[in-house]
Amino acid sequence: KDQLAFMCYPNFQTYVNIRKIREKFREDPQRGLNAILTHEIGHRFCPYDLVTSIILKHNIKKVIEGENLPYNTDTAANLLLNLFADESINTILERKGDEDISWAYQQISKENDNRLWKVYARSMELSWKKELLPKNTELDEEETKASEELSQLFEDEVFDKSKWNERIKTYSSIMCKFLE
User: 111-114 long-range CB contacts below 8 Å, 24 or more apart?
Assistant: First the structure.
């Protein structure tokens, strides 16, 4: 796999691509590994289990069906679910004072300048009140508005599962416009 790491359900086994982490976080591979491992453990709590994943993915598909997507609905739904879960996990970690997560996103942002990444990272910047994107990164009006709307989804208790279905629908309706 080309991912930095991933967790398999239902046994919550976590796999880490050490080579990829060393490449991505050349400045401090150990700090990058710590950030990635801490993040991956968060997937035990978000999306929590296979059933919750299925429900959230179903809600995403209902929102994005009929949208002009660059790939099939299933692939898009998986990506949107992962982005939502990642942003939820990372927001919790940031609120708990984990400095490695924001550092990792600063490193990753150096190589990502597509619209999806800019909206995703800027929404976390607004939520966390930290710079993640390189200073010269510019967002257009649509990207700025989307970032602001996304950041509002993460203002209160992020791990409140009773709000996930509505949040994932809103999240998906915003982010699907930026899939590339």
Answer: 113/137, 114/180
pTM: predicted TM-score of the whole model, two decimal places: 0.92
Beta partners for 16? 5
Q: Tell me, what amino acid is at 115?
A: R
Token digits for 51?
Answer: 């059933």
> Would you place residue 10 in the very low, low, confident or very high pLDDT band (cuts 50, 70, 90)?
confident
As given in the structure block, the two tokens for residue 55 are 């429900």
Separation in Å, CA 46 to CA 10, 21, 160: 13, 22, 10
Provide the β-strand partners of residue 8: 13
The tens digit of pLDDT for each residue in 114-152 reads 999 999 999 999 999 999 999 999 999 999 999 999 999
User: Tokens representing 116?
Assistant: 């999806």
Find out whether 80 and 177 touch, Cβ atoms under 8 Å.
no
Both tokens of 78, joined, read: 């998986």
**DSSP H/E element including 74:** helix 73-95
Handedness of CA 50, 45, 8, 73 (dihedral sign): positive
